[in-house]
């Protein structure tokens, strides 16, 4: 599968974010693959992009700590969600993407009355 990512090549400015396309492998046995519908923007993302956050990854990185979307695939050992579930989740960067693979421990079913932006 191909996915679109918001990639920070060089820290220091929001102008340094570019949209790129890359391959996304199938999820491993403990992961879920998510089609991202909404992302959160918080101070840690902005500080990381500016190079001011101590937990910022070295080199190029994909910002984004929180997201919501739909499960499109699961690994064999995943029990907490299934394909087509609406979810919200957290990650240590990587949320600013069209799709992502994440350990199922960090994914939670979206409450039935919530929309993706609320998640």
Automatic annotation (TrEMBL):
MF-aspect GO terms: oxidoreductase activity
Q: Which Gene3D superfamilies match?
A: Medium-chain alcohol dehydrogenases, catalytic domain
What keyword terms does UniProt attach to this protein? Oxidoreductase
Q: Which InterPro entries match?
A: ADH-like_N, GroES-like_sf, SV-ATPase_mito-regulator
Domain Alcohol dehydrogenase-like N-terminal as annotated: residue spans: 29-111
Name of the protein this chain belongs to: Alcohol dehydrogenase, catalytic domain, GroES-like protein
Supply the source organism for this entry: Leptospira interrogans serovar Pyrogenes str. 200701872
């Amino acid at each position: 599968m191909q996915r679109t990512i918001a990639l920070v090549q060089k820290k220091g400015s929001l102008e340094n974010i570019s949209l790129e396309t890359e391959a996304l492998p199938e999820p491993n046995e403990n992961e879920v693959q998510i089609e991202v519908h909404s992302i959160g923007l918080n101070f840690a993302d902005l500080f990381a992009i500016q190079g001011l956050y101590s937990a910022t990854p070295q080199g190029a990185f994909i910002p984004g700590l929180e997201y919501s979307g739909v499960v499109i695939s699961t690994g064999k050992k995943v029990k907490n969600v299934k394909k087509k579930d609406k979810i919200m989740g957290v990650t240590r960067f990587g949320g600013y993407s069209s799709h992502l693979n994440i350990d199922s421990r960090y994914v939670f079913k979206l409450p039935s009355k919530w929309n993706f932006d609320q998640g």
